[in-house]
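> call design_seq(struct)
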């Protein structure tokens, strides 16, 4: 998916293929983890009025989702799983209160051991998808041309780009959030990789038959 494309229909198709892409990755845990992250966690957080927060088990499950959907780094899971409950609650409460000031919100969360800007962005995206998108490799490459720089500075550039794209796509009567844009980009990139991989497998099996 070319980030510069302004055809809403193409973006809607990419976004609507998200669940199919999750299912086609052959990671059984990912289906249930993604359901938790995209459907359950947001409502759980918002039910905690007047001061929303997340718990250590929820942060741990969110980290598992992030690592299963992307690159597996078990040490990060160990770090967040061992953080004191009150510390996670306090940091997330402050972060959510800081929005829409994304920079401050990220900084409140990255005091937690094992939580960098990318994991912090996943926490914010669960609470405020209309403000802060998740910092996935695939969306970073599509929007910025690379995914090597996991700094707060780079994330803020990423946020600006995805917020602007969401606004552009919403201008035609549709409602697109920055998180919708991220999921569409991720789904498009992963879907293309799956197709390319299956084509390679088909070609190699044909070669074997010829021998």
């Amino acid at each position: 998916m070319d980030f510069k494309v302004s055809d809403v229909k193409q973006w809607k198709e990419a976004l609507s293929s998200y669940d199919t892409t999750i299912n086609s990755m052959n990671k059984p845990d990912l289906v249930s983890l993604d359901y938790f992250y995209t459907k359950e966690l947001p409502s759980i957080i918002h039910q905690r009025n007047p001061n929303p927060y997340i718990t250590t088990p929820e942060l741990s499950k969110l980290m598992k989702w992030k690592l299963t959907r992307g690159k597996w780094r078990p040490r990060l899971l160990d770090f967040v799983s061992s953080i004191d409950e009150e510390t996670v609650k306090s940091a997330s409460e402050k972060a959510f209160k800081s929005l829409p000031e994304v920079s401050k919100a990220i900084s409140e969360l990255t005091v937690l051991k094992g939580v960098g800007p990318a994991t912090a962005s996943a926490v914010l995206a669960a609470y405020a998808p209309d403000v802060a998108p998740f910092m996935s490799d695939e969306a970073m490459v599509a929007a910025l041309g690379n995914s090597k720089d996991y700094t707060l500075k780079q994330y803020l550039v990423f946020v600006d780009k995805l917020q602007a794209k969401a606004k552009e796509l919403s201008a035609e009567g549709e409602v697109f959030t920055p998180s919708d844009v991220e999921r569409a980009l991720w789904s498009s990139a992963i879907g293309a990789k799956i197709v390319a991989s299956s084509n390679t497998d088909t070609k190699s099996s044909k070669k074997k038959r010829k021998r």
